Amino acid sequence: CDEYRPALYKFDATGRLGKRYVPFGPNALGVDVGTEALPAVYAARRANRGFEAIATYGGLIYAFVQSPLDNPDVTTDNSSKASLSTRILVFNPATETTVAEYLYRIEGSGSDKIGDAVADGPGTLLVVERDDATGPAAKKKIFRISLAGATNLSTLPPAIAGPGGTLELMTPAQLAANGIVPVAKTLHVDLAAIGFADVADKVE
User: Fold this and answer.
1) What gap in Å lies between CA 145 and CA 28, rounded to an integer?
2) Which of 31, 69, 120, 177 has the most CB atoms in a 10 Å sphere around its CB?
3) Which three-class secondary structure state does DSSP give residue 176?
4) How is the chain split among helix, strand and coil, in percent rounded to 5?
């Protein structure tokens, strides 16, 4: 996965790049940047905060946007900075299609980004969430998340989940009022509490 674009890259066994999967839209500008297969709204990612984590299970790819999308997209990135809602994209490499999206709520209070993820079973993943600090007060946690019961964002109307939509800036109460359920998360381990955060800010 590519933290910058964001994009997914497919390589063959020799290391040769075969395909680059990108959000819908940019090829219409006259330059072929890859196979358009991801929701267009992902182009509204905050600079340098595209897909930071990637995991695979059951033939599907789970790609995590590092921080909330800047949606609506503004030059100051204020939409991203004001949001605690980031997205998990589920991609089927066999059909080259996005099959689902889910909402992940970041803790906030300094914790503002996803660091890494690994699948831990069907619909269950372990996710690193962190800040940029080090030391005992740093926010470096691994959460176990479950997709069961979470809303598939791809079923929502564009006015909510698409470019310019309201999803990223919804409060928990507004999400609930619209029937939008984020993924369930429980603390698996607090890395700062066991001393690991003294080692590095990027625990991944």
Assistant:
1) 37
2) 69
3) helix
4) 15, 40, 45
**HEC string of 125-166?**
EEEEEECCCCCCCCCEEEEEEECCCCCCHHHCCHHHHCCCCC
Cα separations in angstroms, 83 against 71, 140, 168, 172:
9, 19, 6, 11
129-163 per-position pLDDT tens digit: 999 998 888 999 999 999 999 999 999 999 999 99
Based on C-alpha coordinates, what's the Rg of the chain? 17
Integer Cα distance of 60 and 38 in angstroms:
14
The size of the chain, in residues, is 204
User: Token match 């991203």: residue?
Assistant: 80
Amino acid identity, position 143:
F
Cα–Cα distance between 137 and 48 in angstroms, integer? 25
